[in-house]
Design a protein that fits this description.
The chain is α/β, with parallel strands linked by helices. 46% of the residues are buried. The radius of gyration is 17 Å and the shape is globular. The protein folds into 2 domains: 1-53 and 201-223 and 236-256, no CATH class; 55-182, Alpha-Beta Barrel (TIM Barrel). It has a 9-stranded parallel sheet. It contains 9 helices and 9 strands. It is 41% helix and 15% strand. Helix 1 (20-30) packs parallel to helix 9 (243-253), helix 4 (109-130) crosses helix 5 (153-163) and helix 7 packs parallel to helix 8. The model has no long low-confidence stretch (mean pLDDT 97).
Length: 256
């Protein structure tokens, strides 16, 4: 199997434990192919270090997770935001734009899926034409994001199937889905056709991929690689120890 391309989620390290230069130097030295979710002011610096950018946020500000695609009144603003972000993604060679369902806020799951699919269907042609993938992120609503609607794989797959576009996939976050449903490897094996990007972190705690957490990441990554996946695996853990040591350990575990 070809080793997966690995990326580092910027927000987990900068500015909380590393400077931008220190993170990019470490990423390049350790063999990472990319970083993701990088503040745009640092995009030129990423290129200087010979790294790619695996993803960027597609729409909304700090409240995008709460106020997202499952509200028809948000559709036009999301369409405009994605139009702008897709243009930047093409210019900077960013393959994935992360999208969010929004919170339920009393919205029935079936109707929420219908509206989210409608919103994605409205913007999918732009992404298809640009060669950019819109990845709808699966997040847990039990610990980190109360009331978030796209909190189970089946719901996300329902949405992606309804859109029926090669440019619309799921961002399968292993940490979040371990909290919500477990059964990670079987879920990946059965649903990999609908997944366009992966994130990692140890559970519980969202920290390093070490012996203090419950997920067998080597087996999980082997299962992902066996599906023929050729995209990025994003390390999105918040380090509690030495960040470079944590990134080195994660890279080694996920190189299969």
């Amino acid at each position: 199997m070809t080793p997966l391309k690995q990326a580092i989620a910027w927000w987990c390290f900068v500015p909380r434990v590393m400077t931008p230069e220190a993170l990019l130097r470490a990423a390049a030295d350790l063999g990472y192919a990319a970083v993701e979710l990088v503040d745009p002011e640092y995009w030129p610096l990423v290129k200087q270090y010979g790294l790619k950018m695996a993803s960027h946020r597609g729409h909304g500000g700090d409240d995008a997770i709460i106020n997202g695609m499952n509200r028809r009144e948000n559709r036009e603003s999301i369409r405009q935001a994605l139009r702008e972000q897709i243009a930047l993604a093409v210019e900077w060679e960013i393959p994935n734009l992360v999208c969010f369902s929004g919170n339920r806020n009393g919205l029935d799951d079936a109707l929420g899926a219908e509206i989210t699919a409608e919103t994605l269907h409205a913007v999918a042609p732009m992404a298809e034409d640009a060669g950019v993938t819109l990845v709808l992120e699966l997040l847990n609503s039990k610990v980190d994001h109360p009331d978030y609607q796209c909190d189970h794989t089946a719901w996300g797959v329902q949405v992606v199937k309804a859109v029926n576009s090669p440019a619309v996939k799921l961002l399968y976050d292993i940490y979040h889905m371990q909290i919500m449903e477990g059964d990670i490897i079987r879920t990946i094996q059965e649903n990999h056709a609908w997944i366009g990007h992966y994130h990692t972190a140890g559970n519980p705690g969202r920290h390093e991929l070490d012996a203090n957490q419950e997920l067998n990441y080597r087996a999980i990554v082997q299962a992902i690689a066996a599906t023929g996946y050729t995209g990025y695996l994003g390390q999105e853990f918040v380090p509690v120890g030495d960040p470079v040591a944590g990134l080195r350990q994660a890279f080694a575990i996920c190189t299969v």
